[in-house]
């Protein structure tokens, strides 16, 4: 999965390093990422300098084993036009493998910084803090502080004997097979979210919840928490059609082919675990 980066260590601890040639400067237009045209790779500091950028324009994001990652929150158009623009999905395939977690975490942090450019208390501009990973209001009478936002969400593998519930979204143009998922609401436990999301999306009841694992998912700024659950009662599915276009029960042999050989996301990791019959009590 995306967080499995071996012996590498990712750190978002606050720091103010000076960029070096081997460091990365990740640039985004909305959620799209900018790449070096000749190589299709993520830009390094040398690429940034060659396009007329300066160190003073950069904001530090994180570090992996001494390699620093920066961004430019206010990207000049004359610099942006030197790069090619791709959807953030390209970050699922960048090499080396540890760079996938680093780049997607950068996307998460940049999206947070861009959506907190103005104070929610007084409306004054906010800037990256000089002492910690935070955005701080520039109004001397306010100085409100906002920290990176993480949105917890559940993924649920609902089992009905030797079958698993797979869904397809009605939101995306070409949806892949997935599991029931959804964000936690205020005041909920994760287990309550599991019951509510399964019931809302499919009309099904579940029991015997078992924690599976979790992962950061910077594409949506989420922390995904996986659960296995057993069907409780009727297996008749009632779709929440504004969320799902289809849902059904599948044995391991009936599960459609994997869309990735090495799935980065917890959803498809869980599906592949079920397909391979690697769950307790699964034969």
Describe the model.
With 283 residues, this protein is of the alpha+beta class. It has two domains: 10-114, Nucleoside Triphosphate Pyrophosphohydrolase; 151-275, Nucleoside Triphosphate Pyrophosphohydrolase (Alpha-Beta Complex), CATH 3.90.79.10. Helices cover 18% and strands 29% of the residues. It is built from five helices and 16 strands. Strands 11, 12, 13, 14, 15 and 16 form a six-stranded mixed β-sheet that branches. Strand 9 (135-137) and strand 10 form a beta hairpin. The longest helix has 17 residues, at 98-114. The protein is globular and about 60 Å long.
Distance between the termini: 24 Å
| Percent of sequence in beta strands | 25-35%
* Overall number of strands: 16
Identify low-pLDDT runs. none
List the main descriptive attributes of the protein structure presented here.
283 residues; Nucleoside Triphosphate Pyrophosphohydrolase; 4-stranded mixed β-sheet; 5 helices; globular
Fold topology:
Elements: E1 10-11, E2 24-25, E3 28-29, E4 32-35, H1 45-50, E5 59-64, E6 67-71, H2 77-80, E7 84-86, H3 98-114, E8 126-128, E9 135-137, E10 145-146, E11 151-160, E12 163-169, E13 180-183, H4 190-202, E14 206-217, E15 222-231, E16 244-250, H5 266-275
Parallel strand pairs: 2-6, 11-15
Antiparallel strand pairs: 1-5, 3-4, 4-7, 5-6, 8-9, 9-10, 11-12, 11-13, 12-16, 14-15
